[in-house]
User: Fold UDP-N-acetylglucosamine 1-carboxyvinyltransferase from Desulfocapsa sulfexigens.
Amino acid sequence: MEKLVIEGGNLLHGEVRISGAKNAALPLIAASLLAPGIHVLHNVPDLRDTRTILRLLESLGLSWEREGSTLRIDGSGLRYSEASYELVKTMRASVLVLGPLLARLGRAKVSLPGGCAIGARPINFHLMGFEQLGVTCDLAHGYVDAHIEGRMQGGTVYFDIPSVTGTENLLMAAALAKGTTVIKNAAREPEIGNLVNMLNAMGADIEGRDSERLTIHGVENLTAAESTIIPDRIEAGTYAIAIAAAGGDAVISNCNPGHLPSLVEKLRSAGVEVEVGDDFLHVASDRARTIRPVNITTMPYPGYPTDLQAQFMALMAGCKGLSVIHETIFENRFMHVAELKRMGADIQIDGRVAMVKGLGDVPLTGAQVMATDLRASSSLVIAGLAAEGRTEISRIYHLERGYEDLVGKLTAVGARVWKEDE
Ligand SMILES: CC(=O)N[C@H]1[C@@H](OP(=O)(O)OP(=O)(O)OC[C@H]2O[C@@H](n3ccc(=O)[nH]c3=O)[C@H](O)[C@@H]2O)O[C@H](CO)[C@@H](O)[C@@H]1O
Ligand SMILES: C=C(OP(=O)(O)O)C(=O)O
Assistant:
């Protein structure tokens, strides 16, 4: 197994180019199950998760080829309807094959998904939604076994909490259902808009993109189409926070700042200089200790993203003063706190609230720490970049799920970071 080693204390200068979004690539790749023919996807990041979902598609009978960041997936070979535990256990987004399999084959048997250990993460909203469309869903031996005779029938689905993958699954199922489906209190994350565009390009009839009410007029057939994955807003946000914490002056290019409204405001409130361009962010900061404390509360889009909570906490750990971080989306998303404390951070947890007492003039110190989930890992990278001395992060396979070429991108802006065998 490899570990990541960081010699902290270097200012970051230059340019970081952002890759396609993991959380958009995964549903768009799953959507290629919905129609025969060659689907062309551009700007697809090469990540552990994208490789996993492609293996999952292969196991269902599809073939694909990759050239650079362009993926060609042939949806014609679909013939199996079962997604095994081995393929599904490492990745939450595997659940996204349920909707397309039900739409095309009328049957899907999918292991309950794994993914980041940040909470219980049930899929009851997905199943309730399918049942509204006439599907029978049974749970046994760790699998969802769902089936329907004939086509699904449009219906109304209301989510108690806006669920990102729940909305995506229902969109894909309802695209081929008979009649009209309305999703109320749908999630509005930009990755869902990316999926709606792909489905409409395939011949679906979906109204209400980017709103909390989506209306899907079912069609009989879809055809393969060409789509482009949006830039990864969480990757862009992670680098913006890294530059703020380590200090420096760098451009984050090929991103969509419009997808990061809350982060830009929070960074500015903390005293970080942020210039917003059409497709870039220019971030400049002295080291974290010159930064002001800022409170954050995670919320569904366009609120502050839970996927950038751990990274912001690493920034606040080094600033001067007290900040309060409230995690409202997942009940167990403070796994990074114990590791940040190993680096000298002063953080107290009370339920879903973390009180972060910034160290101010005393820097964080490098330490041996363990990555526990994807974003917890990136918060340790940020802390390591800002810290004095050497940080060693083990279990970096978590990072590889969601950050393309992390070492290359950080090295290019002057960080001292590399991988070593443990
Ligand atoms: C692959 C992907 O896109 N992952 C993202 C997606 O995860 P994911 O789609 O799993 O997250 P959801 O939006 O579904 O979860 C939101 C909340 O709803 C709850 N819930 C969800 C579904 C359900 O059936 N029942 C239920 O109770 C969850 O436990 C959580 O408290 O959105 C999260 C919230 O922005 C992000 O952190 C993840 O990076
Ligand atoms: C929680 C995340 O991923 P997943 O939903 O795939 O576990 C994430 O991207 O931060």
Notes: The mean pLDDT is 96. Residues 88 and 94 are 5 Å apart (CA to CA).
